[in-house]
Amino acid sequence: MKIAIIQERPVFYNLEKCLAKAILLIEKAAAQGANLIVFGETWLSGYPAFWIIAQILAFGILNR
Question: CA-CA to 39 of 20 to 30 Å: which in 5, 15, 17, 55?
Answer without folding.
Answer: 55
